[in-house]
Design goal:
Layout lengths: L1 H9 L1 H56 L47 E5 L5 E4 L17 H8 L7 E2 L3 E3 L2 E9 L8 E7 L7 H11 L5 H42 L14 H64 L4 H24 L4 E2 L2 E2 L4 H16 L2 E6 L6 H20 L5 E9 L2 E8 L14 H11 L3 E6 L5 E8 L2
Helix pairs in contact: 1-2, 2-4, 2-5, 5-6, 6-7, 7-8, 7-9, 8-9, 9-10
Length: 502
């Protein structure tokens, strides 16, 4: 169990699960940072900013009630004349209210400004801090947000009216309508401040939320979400990586099988992705490797067989052939000393026949051979010439050779060479032939090999104990060719082989 857990933890599945968890955590943290950065200014402005607007409205309601008991002089501009106009921005005063600048001239901006507007009981503007936007004598209904106008029309004289940020021709504002503290020319005080949330540092955002006490369930919910991601990531990683891990493990088992020498393994292609292509290429590789090793094994076997045949031939030549030669010389000496000695004559004749058979056997044991590139000599014609020369030189057999220069595939060269060797051996050893003719021609898309001898001949219809003719027929059949044998007892034999070539 512990080993399985370790393989899971440090294997491909564990790494994929860890990557899923890390990526998911990173995405969640990034999203939360963006949410905090963009939403906290709204919360802060909506809570802290609204409190500042409320405090400012109540402060101006008290100031106006105390300062203008008998009426507001025409042309009065409310606000602090020493503060510059800052369109789109709101600054807080040390006492928790807003800094309301007095702006007597036009504003060269289309942004909202921090402003205070004094409104009479009949709904007209008495005075404001920005006469160019909220001129005195104008109906408040045409200048203020609809919610503020509705509050004034309802005559909410004892309630501080506030609402969510309102849209105005100069942007979105936070606003408040406060009733006057005492009866007089000013019945309502309207205060507004620009509302423009901007992205802030998420760490600072968390601090501001904690200071305002408005964090609520936001941060704890984020922590719970981060913790819940771990088991969800593990489950998703297991489900997503299960098939991939299974395919990789199948590849691992296949490589171990190949390492143990099994080159017949075949992997099913389970997809069109990189792993699927790897499975297909792995199967192709194992097949090619198996074919290469089989060819190498056959070549090594052939080389070992040829080396063993050469060793046997060498032993026969160095031992048995020498003894037969000595026996023939001894019998010849006995015959010369006693011409009437029939036993010596018989021994000499048998020794000569044994030496001839031994020479034919040596030729069969050490024929011209094939290697990986083709014949040991350059081409089929020189190889056949070499075989015929061996029969002339070693056995004294007359061989007529007529071989055209033909280019044929290596399997055809190999087969024709072996057929020639088999036919010549049979003619000399079994037919006692003293004359052979070998010819090779190329016509009509076929190569024709013809071997004729002047030996004792035989009846092709009668089964023979040897397997030489059967081997010849098998070789030719593999190449899609034909074999013709023309022979009869007492008149030699003719073998004709025709093999198709490209």
């Amino acid at each position: 169990m512990l080993g399985w857990l370790q393989r899971r933890m440090w294997g491909l599945s564990g790494r994929l699960i860890a990557s899923y968890i890390l990526v998911t955590l990173a995405v969640v943290v990034l999203v939360e940072a963006l949410v905090l950065g963009f939403q906290v200014p709204s919360l802060v402005n909506g809570a802290q900013g609204q409190a500042q607007v409320d405090a400012t409205a109540q402060s101006y309601a008290q100031q106006l009630a105390q300062r203008y008991r008998d009426g507001v002089p025409p042309g009065t501009v409310l606000g602090d004349p020493g503060k510059p106009a800052e369109p789109g921005q709101a600054r807080a005063a040390p006492d928790g209210t807003l800094v309301v600048p007095a702006i007597p001239g036009p504003i060269r901006s289309n942004l909202a400004v921090t402003a205070v507007v004094a409104i009479a009981a009949n709904g007209t503007v008495v005075a404001s801090s920005v006469p160019s936007r909220y001129p005195a004598g104008r109906s408040a209904a045409s200048e203020l947000p609809a919610a503020a106008v509705s509050a004034i029309a309802a005559d909410l004289t004892h309630v501080l009216v506030k609402a969510p940020p309102a849209s105005t021709p100069y942007g979105t504002v936070i606003w408040t309508v406060a009733p006057a503290i005492a009866p007089g020319p000013v019945a309502y005080v309207y205060v507004q401040a620009p509302w423009s949330p901007r992205f802030i540092d998420p760490i600072r955002a968390v601090g501001e939320l904690n200071q305002l006490g408005d964090a609520g369930p936001l941060l704890p919910a984020s922590y719970v979400l981060l913790i819940a991601i771990v088991p969800v990531g593990v489950l998703f990683g297991l489900l997503a990586s299960r098939r991939l891990v299974r395919r990789v493990r199948r590849l691992e088992q296949a490589t171990l099988a190949v390492a143990d020498g099994d080159y017949t393994i075949t992997l099913p292609v389970s997809g069109r992705d990189e792993v699927g292509r790897l499975e297909a290429n792995f199967t192709i590789m194992t097949r090619q490797l198996g074919s290469a090793l089989e060819a190498e094994r056959q070549r090594a076997t052939g080389e070992a067989r040829a080396a063993e045949r050469a060793r046997i031939a060498r032993e026969i030549h160095d031992a048995i052939s020498q003894h037969l030669f000595a026996l023939r010389m001894t019998a010849a000496g006995m015959r010369r000393a006693d011409p009437g000695n029939q036993q010596a004559r018989t021994i000499e004749r048998i020794s000569e026949e044994a030496l001839r058979d031994m020479a034919a056997l040596l030729i069969e044991l050490r024929p011209a051979s094939l290697n990986g590139a083709g014949l040991d000599v350059a081409g089929l014609a020189p190889a056949l010439q070499e075989i015929c020369a061996a029969y002339r030189d070693r056995l004294g057999v007359t061989v007529d050779v007529s071989v055209e220069e033909v280019t044929v595939p290596a399997p055809v060269e190999h087969a024709l060479l072996r057929i020639t060797q088999e036919a010549c051996i049979n003619a000399v050893r079994h037919g006692s032939a003293r004359r052979l003719s070998v010819s090779v021609t190329h016509q009509d898309g076929h190569v024709e090999l013809a071997i004729r001898d002047t030996g004792t001949g035989f009846d092709p219809a009668i089964p023979h104990a040897g397997s030489g003719l059967a081997h010849i027929r098998d070789r030719v059949a593999e190449l899609g060719g034909t074999v013709e044998i023309d022979s009869a007892p007492g008149r030699g034999a003719a073998l004709t082989v025709r093999v198709p070539v490209p």
